[in-house]
Amino acid sequence: MSEPGSRTRSGTGRFISGVVEGFYGRPWTMEQRTELFKREQKWGLNTYLYAPKDDYKHRMYWRDLYSAEEAEQLTALISAAKQHEVEFIYAISPGLDITFSNPREVAALKKKLDQVKGFGCSSFSLLFDDIESEMCPADRRTFGSFAHAQAAVTNEVYRHLGEPHSFLFCPTDYCAAFCTPSVSQSSYLHTVGQTLLPGIDVLWTGPKVVSHKISVESIEEVSAVLKRPPVIWDNIHANDYDPQRLFLGPYKDRPTDLIPKLRGVLTNPNCEFHSNFVAVHTLATWCKAAADGGPRDVDMAGGEEEQDWSYSPQKALSLALTDWLQEFMTADQPGGPRRLKKELCDEEPMQTDMSEGPYVPGPEENPLYTAEPLTLDDLELLSELFYLPYEHGATARTMLQELDWLQTDSRAAAADPLTSATPSDSDQRVPAGPAHSPTAGQTAEWRRRAQQFDDMCHAVVQMFNRLSNAPNRRILYDLYTYICDIKSGVGLARAYVKTLGGRARASAQLMNDDPEPWGFRGGLSGEFQRMLPGHGNRDLFRHPPTTAVYSIRPYCPEDKMELQRISREMRREGEDEASVTQPPLLSDCLSAGEISPSPQCGLVLEDEIGMCGYAVALTDAKSAAAKIQRAASEAFSEDFPSLVSVQVLPRVADPAPARRMIGQLLSSIRISGSRGVFCDLRPSDRRMLEFYSRLGSFRAIQAGGLPGDVVIMAASLP
Ligand code: GDL
């Protein structure tokens, strides 16, 4: 096993570790970045990648040179990074509108980077994430593919800059989910791997944009294609995609065995600078941990002789929160903190001369407001409420489970005439809704658990109060909207449980007829979400992510039996009595093997158990349709000549693999020259109707000549 530090490729030694400021939204200030460098140095991280998406001159106006004032600020920042032994990598994202084949464009790129080089920067990066992957006609004439265009320009710029020691490239397909048909078969990634000069490193976010887990195998696979170990751009703590989420859990689900397989890890964390103490601190602990129990050749802060080198997310979190607490307790604003309860006890005797000291109330006057000091328990609770993208912390999970139990149990009790029909409440009861079942609170067990739930809610409110009184106001302000939101959410749940137990009137707490604006939680986006079936209101508590790893591969004749088995199984699930006697569907004939798929038009989805889905197509369905007397109109066949049939077993809870498989199939069909695809379904097959509707590209079509017992879902292939 090779050590990160002993890697020989292009002589680069150390494991790249640190932070990428790569999120959408308000960039950090120069002061915050300088603060970050100090922390990185203290915790043993060595790199900062400057890539704020919404900084004008980083992306949208990438050609524009910096003004004198901006130049001065960047120069100072680069020098601050040096002072703290942090490598400053300047990234630019020209992909929104660059014409790769135009030498003036490449010259503009070089000129901009030359300017930044003049500020003292010697490490650079070109980013091509989140852009259209279609080339303009001019580029298409010059380059064989998008990957060739990007790699050619990147190589040229890299050489122009004198082959810098660190030079990073972010591909457009920067995670496995974006690769077609898969990482190992992605022609885009293969071209990048073959064409990019060996001294250039490649950024990679893992299986997904925000990867739940990153396995050693997945990194070995992508490294083989890229011909170099990637630098992980980790979005585990990024929160720019949802204004209600914040991530204060530890760096997790990346085994430390990855360290020797990687060129480095950079975390792209929460937008709010001060919310990133845990994200960066725990990454630093992870980087120090060794896969084999011994220290790695990474930059580390001193004093590590007696350390336990194995990484435990829980321990790393405790270390981070202990240090964070210190920071919370450090006043950062003129005027200083209000006194804390503990300090008040040690205070000097009451002063009488008002002009010399702070105001001290006299007898029978109002006592001074005092705040309780924040505790480590508070920070632990905070982290558990705002944990990780695919996981709530322990307390959050318990609260959700308990609320679920309290609600279910009270509903059951309300429905049970033996427990619910007591004379005292029967006159209050209305037919629907859990809020009207006060008898559910009659059992001792229910009441005990309701009280426990109430205590947990109270602890959240207490934590909120102590946080809002913490002396460090900057940290508080960065957390404020989130803690306020959770306090309200918990408040609603608390009131609801009281109504379940008959201790509060539902209408008073929850369903006021004339609510204040906070009665319309989540605004327009919240309303949209509540109206959407399935995806829109998916919750982490009931639908934790699957840990299954899926692969998509081409269909081969040996798969026929298994495919038929899945088709039969799924047909049984979706069928009603009547459909058994109805004439066959074209898509069923394709699944059943009565019609063979066209070459290169079959894909199979597999998980660790085996085949769990398929997508097959017949590019020209006319003759097959004629066979079972299902000929559609000429116009329909012209617009939608190809037939598809897709099935995915219910155990595939994650919709992403099926989407990917269909995306790949549609692109093969398009390459064959087809203008559109269709599939025929029974009107009673709601599951598949919903499945196709959710894909977005399919819609129900009225096709002349087809019987009324069939629904056609079709998609154009532009
Ligand atoms: C992305 C963007 C990143 C953003 C993140 C989370 C990469 C390479 N690019 O896709 O800028 O912050 O998602 O929303 O991750």
Account of the protein in words:
- The protein has 25 helices and 15 strands.
- The chain is globular.
- The strands form 2 sheets. Strands 1-2-3-4-5-6-7-8 form an 8-stranded parallel barrel. It has a 7-stranded mixed β-sheet with strand order 9-10-11-12-13-15-14, sandwiched between helices.
- The chain is 41% helix and 11% strand.
- The two termini are 49 Å apart.
- It has helices spanning 30-43, 68-83, 103-118, 137-142, 146-160, 187-195, 216-226, 277-288, 313-328, 341-345, 376-385, 394-415, 417-420, 423-426, 444-468, 473-500, 506-509, 523-531, 560-574, 577-581, 586-591, 622-627, 634-639, 655-671, 686-695; strands at residues 16-21, 47-50, 87-92, 123-127, 167-170, 201-204, 231-234, 264-267, 551-554, 602-606, 611-618, 642-648, 676-681, 699-701, 711-716.
- The longest helix is centred in the C-terminal third of the chain and has 28 residues, at 473-500.
- Helix 1 (30-43) packs parallel to helix 2 and helix 5 runs parallel beside helix 6 (187-195).
- The protein is an alpha/beta fold and 718 residues long.
- The chain has 3 domains: 4-295 and 311-328, Glycosidases (TIM Barrel); 341-346 and 369-531, Methane Monooxygenase Hydroxylase, Chain G, domain 1 (Up-down Bundle); 551-716, Gcn5-related N-acetyltransferase (GNAT) (Aminopeptidase, 3-Layer(aba) Sandwich), CATH 3.40.630.30.
- The structure holds 2-(acetylamido)-2-deoxy-D-glucono-1,5-lactone.
